[in-house]
Amino acid sequence: MKDFQQYQYDFTAHIRDPKNNPKPDNVDEERMAVYREGVYNNIFESASVCFPVCQETVGGEDWDATIRRFVATHHASSPIFRDIPHELLTFLEADEKTPPMIKQLAHYEWVELAVGGMQTEAPALSNSVDLINEIPVLAPAHMLLQYDYPVQKISAQFKPEETEGTHLLVFRKADFEVSFIELNPMVFVLLNLAKEGLTGEQALTSLAEQIQHPEPEAIIEFGHGVLKDLMGQGAVLGSKKHE
Fold it and tell me: What is the pLDDT of residue 80?
């Protein structure tokens, strides 16, 4: 390795992990400190702004240690500064020191940023709404999520010790506000079936068969009410004809 390349390597290695990598000999400590603190503080602020509940839940000392591990060891796939929260999420998923609950909480917090920034097109809808005989259409910017913990309830005051299956719909409204709706498992399955291209009736009939309900008509009536409620909240935009 050429001298200048070795110098660059040593310089950046020290910035990333100063405890384990000494600074180059010919760099003034005061100047080196400016680089160390500037790089770390910028990454800390950018990474932390997306995860306020994670910070509060793990505490300042542990969060600082997490960000320092991230800076020291993570090899980013994107050079874009706004992608740092996603890079941190990728790091946390593989980090053995981060508890599973915090990994899922971090994903839940990141989702708002992800859905808010989704590039979408307005879906084609029927002129009239028929949520039973046609395919229900969700807001184009959305995610259907399943977690092992009640991530929407976690805080410094509430850290669940037991797993609890949790289903969420996260969607962006027409005014660009991102909203979260907690779903029961049946509605979660219903919406996924609709996304696969089933009409409301087909999805609800399939759901009734899966749970072995003796009265499929009751499930269809129940599901129709749920879809209309979701439409009232802006999560369902309307319906489209089955192709």
Answer: 86
Alpha helices in 17-122 (DSSP H): 29-48, 52-58, 60-73, 84-94, 100-116
pLDDT tens for each residue of 73-91? 999 888 888 899 999 999 9
Please state the three-class secondary structure of 167-229 as a single string: EEEEEECCCCCEEEEEECHHHHHHHHHHHCCCCHHHHHHHHHHHCCCCCHHHHHHHHHHHHHH
Tell me, what DSSP letter sits at residue 152?
G
Q: Where in the chain is the domain with CATH 3.90.930.50?
A: 135-240
Q: Please classify residue 79 by burial: count the beta carbons closer than 10 Å to its beta carbon, then call 0-12 exposed, 13-18 middle and 19+ buried.
A: exposed
Determine the distance from the C-alpha atom of residue 31 to the mean position of all C-alpha atoms in its chain, rounded to a whole number. 38
Token pair of 142 as six digits: 């959305």
8 A C-beta contact, residue 193 and residue 206 = yes
User: Does the pLDDT of residue 1 top 60, yes or no?
Assistant: no
The fold of 135-240 is Outer Surface Protein A; domain 3 (3.90.930)
Q: What angle do CA 231, 233, 237 make, to 5 degrees?
A: 35
How would you class 72 by CB atoms within 10 Å of its CB: exposed for 0-12, middle for 13-18, buried for 19 or more?
middle
Q: How far apart are CA 147 and CA 108, in angstroms?
A: 9
Q: Which of 233, 228, 127 is nearest to 171 (CA)?
A: 233
pTM: 0.91
